[in-house]
């Protein structure tokens, strides 16, 4: 019986293979080209599209769309662009269609390109209407703007190519560009109507359902108008292979959950589909089939990645082998203009097994500088390695040039021949790349190396009114991730913060390189300061000079200002 069971199990596990342990070959998938990316720009022709009566979507005014639902005595705006400026352009077009006031906003998720311009849709003096969102949106918004802002900003500027010359930009895959520029401004209205799983409501005579639908973000929702069979899927669907992983950096995006969310959408049999990126679709059968292909592509990449993981393959090996089946690879909705199956496969590996790939040599590797030094020695010295780099460059081996120059420039950043070869490789790879995320990353990295381009550590300087809406707690979170562990290694101190315009109170404890924030005043605090919460926020956001602000605006109830200045210097972020 035992042998019979395992014999059956072994047979079951071998299903789908031409022979147990041997892969059945799939035809090579078509490869997107720069010319195809250029043609893809037609997807973002700037216009306001009437989807059906009372439903309008603004495409091409920024990286994301904004959607207007017209009701009896007002409108609902779904997603509000990345900046006030882009939102103002959209709002002006919407007002040409109807002067009805905004009765509600809906945020499909927390990404900045969907939440930055809400006030632009309001008439002067209008009180902010309800803002609907999934329960985790506010928390995720705050995390992006505090804890991870510097690194996400720099990587996003590389990925979206904001600082590239116009002639080097094509599009960003799901929109014409990310409209963040010097002088741009944002103003986020925080969610006021939140839910966990499902919410149903009627605003301006528009009956809608909001359904939690994890996918590109954990806080994603879709909007369903059941009487009219209209579906707004947020960022869980757009005309490009989905970003199951984004190279700007993100927490794990669960492909199984994403596919399950698409299954919920398919089951509704919508007759109109209005995404928050790319153009709307119409026709129940067409939408159903398109959504089916989309979820199938996601499940294929997930299932086959897990299958190869279980066979013991390493992330790069899996990435090389994951190709969509031909019927999916040829879909216009699954071209690699945003995500890539190979990137997704590696994310699935780390998302399920963590950073360790299972190879004992990578368990405790040599530090990068030591590894580079030994590789240079192995190559026969710096001059010999440089010759190999130059030869590889002349032979068009651009990826190999990048990998070799990782070693050469780590050992000697002033190696000009290696530097020039790396610059040439980045330029060539970028210009040949059809995926705009990869294209921009190569080209911006090239300009950082060649031109000394400096990337900012935040996309925009926040306005005081934006800071006013943000909770105090996230500013203390931001302090914690900026604590200099070395500078505070011998420090034990408690600083109490009292605010003149907020009932909130905090005591910040530094304990030998470690932070603890207590949401109350501790009587044993070494220093007790009193200040306006708004001034405190503006100081931390670098809208105010810290030294002058502490001297002028902080009242020291206990201790002295010099001690407090020394404390605050522990949180100065390092220059990148």
From TrEMBL:
This is Putative alkyl/aryl-sulfatase YjcS. It comes from Tepidimonas fonticaldi. Keywords: Hydrolase, Metal-binding, Zinc. One of its GO terms (biological process) is dodecyl sulfate metabolic process. Residues 63-277 form the Metallo-beta-lactamase domain. Belongs to the metallo-beta-lactamase superfamily. Type III sulfatase family. Pfam families: Alkyl_sulf_C (PF14864), Alkyl_sulf_dimr (PF14863), Lactamase_B (PF00753). Its EC number is 3.1.6.-. PROSITE patterns: PROKAR_LIPOPROTEIN. The keyword Chloroplast does not apply. SMART domains: Lactamase_B.
